[in-house]
Design the sequence.
């Protein structure tokens, strides 16, 4: 089964500390939502409120159109999967997966059949009679997922389930987790602090900071068109170039920066319409820089810069640059792998206008 989730003005305080501050979310049935943010941002608190392990100080929760704000965990159509898997070491895998069904009074024969079906879903049907200590970390993670899905929850809550895995296995499991979610169609709400993981698996990402939602949308939108400086900086690497808005008309605005004047269309101002005299911050991803004359579309030159150092990363050169007209600003740019880059080399930088995002500098 699957169900939509509605969170309205949820706030959670612990004494004088506000862990969650007036958070509202509308999650569609069958969506894979990722709550992303640094430690202490409120994402685990929100997950605990969805699971019924915490009650909000104010606000309401609805799942499948039914009021759930103060319903205990055992009576909610949710299951939570934790990072430590919490498997019973003395039980066979089929019994671990069928444990929730046993608690619901399902008979042994039906329980075992359903457990084996879900073990088959995660590629472990042949290991049904093994015990957890005989498995690798990734296999134990699959068993925990099978157990969580076996009780047919409307919403599966995942609290950093891949955090204990090494990088290669974590990436493999990201692909498998996404594929399984699409197959079963259950609504997933997944907590992580890993930006790459969020982009790999999410239908939509919720970027959180200090108990509030900073941004919410598809991974490509969050990365390419962020709506806050925090979201821009947390989702990968970005260069911040301060400036001031000068001329504004119906199509866009001219921004004056230490690197020169840049004319931007309205679409670049993702947090609202620009106003003359307003301070702004231009956000430019390292991969969007190029040498003048390279690339297609409307390109603006940003002056000359000197390479202070560079490193080859296989797909690109990662270069630290000092703009000749603004030596106090440090720029990180990714240059193509075919480019010859040397320390002390002077480059004329440019960027496609459409790749720049301008955000109010008061958010810094």
Sequence:
């Amino acid at each position: 089964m699957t169900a939509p989730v509605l969170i309205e003005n949820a706030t959670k305080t612990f004494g004088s500390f506000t862990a969650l501050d007036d958070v509202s979310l509308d999650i569609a049935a069958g969506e894979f939502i990722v709550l992303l943010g640094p430690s202490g941002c409120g994402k685990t608190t929100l997950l605990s409120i969805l699971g019924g392990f915490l009650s909000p100080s104010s606000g309401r929760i609805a799942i499948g159109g039914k009021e759930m704000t103060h319903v205990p965990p055992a009576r909610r159509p949710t299951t939570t999967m934790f990072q430590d898997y919490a498997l019973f070491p003395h039980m066979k895998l089929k019994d671990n997966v069928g444990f929730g069904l046993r608690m619901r009074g399902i008979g042994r024969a039906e329980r075992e059949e359903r457990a084996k079906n879900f073990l088959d879903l995660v590629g472990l049907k042949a290991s049904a009679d093994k015990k957890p200590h005989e498995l690798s970390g990734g296999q134990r993670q699959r068993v925990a997922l099978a157990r969580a899905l076996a009780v047919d929850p409307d919403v599966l809550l995942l609290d950093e389930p891949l955090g204990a895995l090494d990088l290669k296995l974590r990436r493999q499991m990201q692909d498998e987790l996404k594929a399984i979610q699409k197959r079963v169609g259950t609504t997933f709400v997944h907590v992580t602090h890993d930006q790459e993981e969020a982009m790999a698996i999410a239908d939509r990402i919720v970027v959180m900071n200090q108990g509030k939602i900073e941004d919410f949308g598809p991974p490509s939108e969050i990365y390419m068109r962020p709506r806050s400086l925090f979201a821009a900086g947390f989702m990968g690497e970005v260069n911040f170039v301060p400036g001031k808005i000068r001329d504004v008309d119906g199509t866009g605005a001219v921004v004056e920066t230490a690197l020169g004047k840049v004319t931007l269309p309205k679409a670049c101002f993702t947090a609202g319409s620009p106003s003359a005299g307003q301070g702004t911050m231009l956000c430019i991803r390292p991969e969007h820089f190029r040498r003048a004359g390279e690339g297609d579309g409307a390109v603006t030159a940003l002056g000359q810069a000197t390479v202070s150092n560079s490193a080859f990363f296989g797909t690109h050169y990662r270069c630290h640059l000092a703009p000749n007209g603004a030596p106090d600003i440090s720029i990180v740019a990714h240059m193509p792998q075919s480019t010859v880059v040397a320390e002390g080399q002077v480059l004329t930088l440019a960027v496609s206008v459409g790749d720049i995002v301008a955000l109010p500098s008061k958010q810094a």
